[in-house]
Design goal:
The chain is of the alpha/beta class. It is 46% helix and 12% strand. The protein is built from 8 helices and 5 strands, in the order H-E-H-H-E-H-E-H-H-E-H-E-H. The radius of gyration is 16 Å and the shape is globular. The N and C termini lie far apart (35 Å).
Length: 205
């Protein structure tokens, strides 16, 4: 039972921080409330749920928590360039909210940070043009220094997206939450889902 105590503390802290973060915003979220119908997760292996067992990826956990299907358009290994190349997969749907999680592979492949930022901006603008809300999910860009932190916040402020900062905060390097050096395990993905949930549920209202 010990392994449940620490995650609960992390979850409570994350929920409080996210609630303060979200409700203190004064800028309207672009396209809120959206007239779309589909909730879509778009991104890399973290969206796929690599490292989890069947049904325990964060997208599936979120879907159960909100009581609605979430279409999983994750593709392992994708960089932001790959995301742009396949963003037209959204054409099949009528997106209401798109959870956008890309950037980790850009860091691993040493893609320049300005390129990552610009590619994410292109993706956000494409999704907004479809009338959907973007829920931007941050990732860390660096082990010692986070080169992405300011970039993600600037994207949030520029395009008025919903936003959850660094979804992997506190998980890296802890075998209790990680299946390998990059991907969470079931417990880690549950923590990610709990961090996203309070922001996502407000966007659905």
């Amino acid at each position: 039972m010990k392994y449940r105590i620490l995650p609960l503390g992390i979850l409570v802290a994350a929920l409080v921080a996210l609630s303060v973060f979200y409700f203190s915003r004064t800028e309207p979220i672009t396209n809120y409330p959206s007239q779309g119908t589909d909730i879509i997760a778009f991104g890399d292996s973290l969206v796929v749920g690599d490292g989890s067992t069947n049904g325990n990826d964060f997208v599936s956990v979120l879907s159960r928590k909100i009581g609605r299907p979430i279409i999983n358009l994750g593709h392992a290994g994708d960089t932001t360039v790959d995301g742009i190349a396949r963003i037209n997969q959204l054409d099949t749907y009528n997106p209401k909210i798109v959870l956008l999680l890309l950037g980790g592979n850009d860091y691993l492949k040493k893609i320049p940070v300005p390129d990552t930022r610009n590619n994410l901006a292109t993706l956000i603008q494409n999704i907004h043009a479809r009338g959907a809300i973007v829920l931007l999910l941050g990732v860390r860009g660096g082990l010692v220094r986070d080169h992405f932190d300011t970039e993600f916040k600037n994207l949030r402020d520029t395009y008025h997206t919903a936003f959850v900062p660094n979804v992997l905060e506190g998980l890296f390097g802890n075998t209790q939450y990680m299946s390998d050096t990059v991907h969470p395990n079931n417990i880690g993905y549950e923590i990610i889902a709990e961090r996203i949930y309070p922001v996502l549920i407000e966007m659905i209202k």
